[in-house]
Amino acid sequence: FTVPEGRAIASLSGVDANAFGMNSLDTKNLVEIQSVSPDQGFIIEGAEELLEFEEASYVNDVATTFNIPIRADLCYDYHTEALTAPCLKQNVVRDSIGDVCDTTNPSLQLSNSGGPIQVSGMRQKAIGSSKVQFSFTVENVADGIVYLPDTFTDSCRGGDDNKDMVEVTLRNPQNNFVAECTALGKSNTGQIRLVNKKKELTCTVDTTSLQEVSYQDIMFVDVDYMYREAITTNLKVENAI
């Protein structure tokens, strides 16, 4: 995922901006941060970007050296794309000699793009002659905190109302079907809150309008969010004399 310009936001806390002659304790990326990308069989590594704060110096005269605990928070846009290939046909409970796949599968193959939020445990089962059910888990597998998209715009602070929440969308590139998910208000897109860093979703697909012969279709699970990480260290203030 390429982080757009201005969508990686760093904020300092633990220091008095005036005491260090700083106009702002916040900064953003000035250029987009490129994702990993394939190129003629090779993998081009993702870019790194340095976020810099303005130059600072302690404005008060001190007779000794002392340490100040300082914290830097980084918030950035991110997107995880998971891909699976469910087995579908019009009548999902009627077996046929020409079937190439099973409409009930307790362990569907699933692949994820890199990211701190991952989709896992994709399962499929027929729950009627023309309906299949999918179950899967959305999980925060890293150490940071996840928030809804656009929670942070100018600083990486606050946002508690949107904490542990992500936006999920299920889609089929051919528009052969539209999933309905209970946790998404019987829609294919919506917001969920993770509990203990994870949330299981159950969705259904009506197969009435699909072809009679079984086939494997493509289903994407898109997860959009902002991710927050932090580091704490000690800042040494020294006597300039």
Structure description:
The chain has 241 residues and is mainly beta. The protein folds into 2 domains: 8-76 and 229-237, no CATH class; 78-226. The chain contains no helices and 16 strands. The protein has strands at 8-13, 26-28, 37-39, 42-44, 66-84, 87-88, 110-112, 117-128, 131-140, 145-147, 165-171, 180-181, 189-193, 198-206, 215-216, 219-237. The strands form 4 sheets. Strands 1, 2, 5, 7, 10, 11, 13 and 16 form an 8-stranded antiparallel β-sheet that branches. The chain has a 4-stranded antiparallel β-sheet with strand order 8-9-14-12, with no helix packed on it. Strands 3-4 form a two-stranded antiparallel ribbon. The protein is elongated, with a radius of gyration of 24 Å.
Structure summary:
This protein has 241 residues and is mainly β. 0% of the residues lie in helices and 45% in strands. The model has no long low-confidence stretch (mean pLDDT 91).
Considering the chains and any ligands shown, give keywords for the structure:
single chain, 241 residues, mainly beta, 2 domains, eight-stranded antiparallel β-sheet, four-stranded antiparallel β-sheet, elongated
